[in-house]
Design a protein that fits this description.
A 3-stranded antiparallel β-sheet has the order 2-1-11. A 3-stranded antiparallel β-sheet has the order 4-3-8. Strands 5-6-7 form a 3-stranded antiparallel β-sheet, with no helix packed on it. Mean pLDDT is 80; it is low at 18-27. The longest helix is centred in the last third of the chain and has 32 residues, at 303-334. By secondary structure, it is α+β, with helices and mostly antiparallel strands. Helices cover 42% and strands 15% of the residues. The chain is elongated and about 100 Å long. It has helices spanning 18-25, 36-45, 48-62, 79-85, 93-107, 181-184, 186-204, 226-239, 265-285, 303-334, 351-362, 369-375, and strands spanning 66-69, 74-75, 109-115, 122-126, 131-135, 141-148, 151-156, 164-168, 211-215, 256-260, 339-342. The N and C termini lie far apart (117 Å).
Length: 386
């Protein structure tokens, strides 16, 4: 009659594949997410090496003097120069370009919006993590969607000049989006962050016990009484802990033996692992470790040589890509072929190279003035001009 009271509780239901999934994921390394927002959080705002590498490149590239010229003339005054000098009401040239370079380094993509149908009145850098490219049936983009919260704005590319300039880094496996140095350095960033957390936990736990007090009773018992343990603990707290008691000698009574302890070889290797991860991050961004203060790097003879290599191998190629894309895009608005480029003659880090080049070209008597100017990247001067 009351058999229903004796029924067993219903068994928990689970998929038959659960054990397989659990076994497959057990023991795997837990890497951080690879989306743009997570990488920016862990690699830029949460890692000093990644933060400094991005800031160093973006600030150096944004500070480069920029020239505007067409096939024959270098302009000192032009609407494009005015636009680049004051891109919008909240940013000047350097702040605007630093934001653009930063987005490109963090996400591999940079987006610039033009305000105005003819010659833009303003330019704005849009956040890459909020932008989505909409491809058409032929694979080419037909629109861009910018999403903030639950709202979206669509930039159509049907006819006319594109209102958005999309600058992307090279990505061998993606047709529409670029690959950022932050993604390439993601594993090294995880290792560096994990090493920092380990060091913090080590400090929170008093770094490492310097030794252990072992009780050896004369009667064969190896355990203190409650009163003895409490007295020893109080004496340790009052006489041998804290900064004011550092280095004070310890007096032990009979039956107590001091066993010194120290760092194991694996603990000592942890710092080397962290420094190796920092060098990998610097290599991914193209920054000589010497410029980031990372020890153990002797690739360059001195700081000046490392700084020159930094400009030649990292800053100038990045600035050339961005300025070339902006120049082509703004040429469509201006209706003429214009070229934006960095003025290498005004870069202090390249002064030694510039002096050597000018000396070699100036001493080449078999070259005409026109050929010399062309070799130096200067526009051709019309006959009769001083």
């Amino acid at each position: 009659m009351f058999d229903f009271l004796k029924r067993k509780a219903p068994e928990a239901k689970a998929s038959a594949t659960g054990r397989v999934i659990a076994h497959a994921s057990a023991g795997r390394v837990a890497w951080s997410p690879r989306d743009a927002v997570s990488l920016t959080r862990t690699g830029f705002t949460g890692n000093p090496v990644g933060f400094r590498a991005v800031k160093l490149i973006a600030e150096a590239a944004a500070a480069l003097p920029v020239t505007l010229q067409d096939r024959t003339t270098r302009y000192d005054a032009h609407p494009v120069i005015d636009l680049l000098t004051r891109p919008n009401g909240a940013q000047g040239r350097e702040a605007f370009l630093e934001s653009l370079y930063g987005q490109l380094l963090l996400t591999g993509n940079g987006y610039v919006e033009a305000v105005g149908e003819e010659m833009p009145g303003e330019m704005h850098v849009l956040r890459s993590d909020r932008m989505r490219l909409v491809p058409g049936a032929d694979g080419w983009p037909v629109a861009y969607e910018y999403a903030v919260g639950g709202r979206k704005h669509r930039f159509d590319l049907n006819g006319g000049v594109s209102p958005v300039c999309h600058i992307r880094a090279f990505h061998p496996q993606d047709d529409h989006y670029g690959l950022s140095p932050m993604q390439a350095a993601a594993q090294a960033l995880d290792v560096h962050n994990a090493a920092s957390r380990w060091s913090k936990a080590l400090l929170d736990n008093a770094a490492r016990p310097s030794g252990a007090i072992v009780y050896r009773g004369v009667d064969g018992h190896g355990q203190l009484s409650a009163d003895q343990f409490e007295r020893l603990q109080m004496e340790m707290e009052s006489q041998h802990q804290g900064a004011r008691n550092a280095g004070r000698p310890m007096l032990l009574e009979g039956g107590l033996d001091w066993k010194p302890m120290g760092f194991s070889p694996s603990d000592m290797e942890f710092q080397k692992t962290k420094e190796a991860a920092a060098r990998e991050i610097a290599v991914a961004f193209g920054v000589p470790p010497m410029l980031l203060g990372i020890p153990g790097d002797a690739t360059y003879a001195n700081y000046a040589e490392a700084n020159r290599a930094f400009y030649r191998l990292t800053v100038l190629p990045l600035a050339g890509r961005v300025l070339s894309s902006l120049g082509d895009w703004l040429s469509d608005f201006a209706g003429e072929v214009l070229t934006l480029a960095a003025d290498l003659d005004q870069v202090p880090a390249l002064s030694a190279e510039r002096e050597a080049l000018w000396r070699r070209v100036g001493e080449a008597g078999f070259l005409t003035d026109v050929e010399k100017r062309r070799m130096l990247g200067l526009p051709v001067v019309e006959m009769g001009d001083e």
